[in-house]
Amino acid sequence: MVVGMIFMLAVEQEWDELNMAIQMFQKATMRLRYSSIPVIAAPHGMALGGGCEVCLHSDKVIAHAETYMGLVEFGVGLIPGGGGTKEFALRLSDELQDGDIRTNAFTNKFLTIGQAKVSTSAYEAYDLGILRKGVDEVIVSRVHQLAYAKKTALNMAEKGYSKPAARNDIKVLGREALGLVYVGADGMTLGHYMSEHDKLIAEKLGTVIAGGNISQTLTEVSEQYLLDVERKAFVELCMQKKTLERMQSLITKGKILRN
Fold this sequence. Notes:
Elements: H1 3-11, H2 15-33, E1 40-41, E2 45-48, H3 50-56, E3 60-64, E4 67-70, H4 84-95, H5 102-114, H6 122-127, E5 137-139, H7 145-158, E6 170-172, H8 175-190, H9 196-209, E7 219-221, H10 223-238, H11 241-253
Parallel strand pairs: 1-3, 2-4, 3-5
Antiparallel strand pairs: 6-7
């Protein structure tokens, strides 16, 4: 999302319009996910925030080796609102194996967004869970990147591409993970490692990735449910004075404000 547009709507307290704008962005990324034709993303340079979310919802990513990718919204007092947070919850569900320590897996996903991690190359984006091993590819030649991405899309179409089915089987951790978030955020705040506002953002982020305040661990929810939780958290953060101060600092000074 464009920070300036979000800031303008939030300052004017146009909450219905802001909610609609976020919903439209979510619908755009979901149309990429459930398109009737293959969608290939070919990022290079920087793919941050919304650009990263577009990649997360594509069928396949053909990334140039020197691509910096990350969900960086935490720095301006927000969480990814175009399906990025939802996608991390979905991928956490898909990656969990029997015997895994669920809270460790959750923490890894949470910190990638919560610390606004950005890959120093496309290869590192695999380690951050932004690119998928065995699905997404990295290409060294910038000159041949688009031609290869186009060829990949055509090959997928010729082989009889069919769009994915809507997901209603995403297993979320609920209160098991939320408890971890709240305890961790309290400890970091008491130790003066994060501000009270950082704590609030962390709790909102954790709520989305955990699938809300659900009592039963590994409850199955739909993708739309997670999008709704994500959008609600995003708009609530926009209502915070300190979030507006962070956005204003980025817009006017080009700097991230710590408040």
